[in-house]
């Protein structure tokens, strides 16, 4: 199980791009995902603004307090600053290539 949490609308917080608001959301979501079976240290939390494109493809200069996300999983560690880097850090599932072919029909 792999999960990325993008905290959107950071441009709409009071004050805009508020670090305390991001940390509050991160804490609340971490508690929730722990209850449903995810390890919070293996989840990337990325503050973003989809409207303005902040931290989507390139690091935003409007959030200098955000030093980046770090995830630790049994396959190793990964780190980055943007949503696209978090998506690139997702590990593809292993395919059972030694087993017979399975073809879903619809």
SSE inventory with pairings:
Elements: E1 3-7, H1 19-35, E2 43-47, E3 69-73, E4 76-80, H2 83-88
Parallel strand pairs: 1-2
Antiparallel strand pairs: 3-4
Protein name: Elongation factor-1 alpha
Pfam family, one: GTP_EFTU
Domain Tr-type G: 3-92
Annotation keywords:
single chain, 106 residues, alpha+beta, Rossmann fold, two-stranded antiparallel ribbon, 2 helices, 4 strands, translation elongation factor activity, P-loop_NTPase, TRAFAC_GTPase_members, GTPase activity, phosphoprotein
What does this structure look like?
With 106 residues, the chain is α+β, with helices and mostly antiparallel strands. The protein has a single domain (3-88), classed as Rossmann fold (3-Layer(aba) Sandwich). It is 22% helix and 19% strand. It is built from two helices and four strands; from the N terminus they run βαβββα. It has a two-stranded parallel sheet with strand order 1-2.
Q: What's the quick description here?
A:
With 106 residues, the protein is of the alpha+beta class. It is built from 2 helices and 4 strands; from the N terminus they run βαβββα.
Which consecutive residue ranges, at least 5 long each, have pLDDT under 50? none
What is the mean predicted local confidence, pLDDT? 93
CATH A-level architecture: 3-Layer(aba) Sandwich
Helix content: 10-25%
Q: Number of helical segments? A: 2
Instruction: Count up the domains.
Output: 1
Largest sheet: 2 strands, parallel
The CATH topology label is Rossmann fold
Label the structural class.
alpha+beta
Return the CATH class.
Answer: Alpha Beta
Q: Alpha-carbon distance between the termini?
A: 26 Å
H-E order: EHEEEH
Rg result:
17 Å
- The tally of strands reads 4
Strand content: 15-25%
